[in-house]
Amino acid sequence: MDKVKLPLSPQRTTTGFAFSYVERALQESLANRQFGQDDMRKVLEFFEFEALECVYCGNVEIKRWDHLVAVKNGGETVLGNMVPACSKCDDSKRDIAFDVWMQSDFPNSPKSRGIENIQERIEHINAYIQHFEYKIRPLETRLTADELTKLEQVRISILQTRKECEDLIAEYNKRINGKS
Ligand SMILES: [Zn+2]
User: Fold this and answer.
1) For the chain, which residues score pLDDT lower than 50?
2) How far is the CA of 85 from the centre of ligand 1 (A)?
3) 45 and 131, same domain (yes or no)
4) Residue 121 main-chain phi, psi, to 5 deg
């Protein structure tokens, strides 16, 4: 038992991480979500894939649907904004515009991985967006003035709650470790 590789210790869930998910939940829930099996089939028909593949890199190990325009940037879960993607691409792309990211030197971007036909892939994705007439509708344009005011209030109270959580954790750490 001398050199047993130990599993990683569990990552601590930070309050920043947790509250970023509350914001994401708000953005995703205050948005259009219409992406059923029929829509998925339409995507695959459009791209004419023989086998399912990642639109960014061609990887055939597809596990996810990715938002071309990230939820954070107002992207919705609808035809024209959803594409099949491999986890490597999805994790690397994050909230960056897909065409910028694909041609960037960002770790694990298609360019960094030496994927061929990047331009062609970008054009194909742009044609897909146009074909299904997808347009970005920022969160602010989807809500009424009244709803926007309520959202603003919710965000302020979330910030306050986050601060209270962090203060409590800091106090606890100070007591336990003598540091904050
Ligand atoms: Zn990929």
Assistant:
1) none
2) 5
3) yes
4) -65, -40
Are 117 and 158 found together in one domain?
no
| Tokens (6 digits) for 29 | 């829930």
Say what the pLDDT of residue 125 is.
98
Residue 120, CA atoms < 13 Å, CB-side half-sphere? 6
Q: For position 108, which CATH number holds?
A: 1.10.30
Q: Which domain holds residue 103?
A: 33-138
- CA 22 to ligand 1 center in whole angstroms: 27
Q: Separation of 91 CA from ligand 1 center, angstroms?
A: 9
User: How many whole angstroms from 113 Cα to the centroid of ligand 1?
Assistant: 10
Q: Do 97 and 128 belong together in one domain?
A: yes
Q: pLDDT > 90: what percent of the chain?
A: 84
- The answer, as to whether pTM is greater than 0.90, is no
Could you tell me if residue 175 is inside a domain? yes
Q: Does 115 reside within a domain?
A: yes
Compute the distance from residue 57 Cα to the ligand 1 centre, in Å: 4
Tens of pLDDT, residues 71-99: 999 999 999 999 999 999 999 999 999 99
Residue of 104, 92, 95, 35 lying closest to 59 (CA atoms): 92
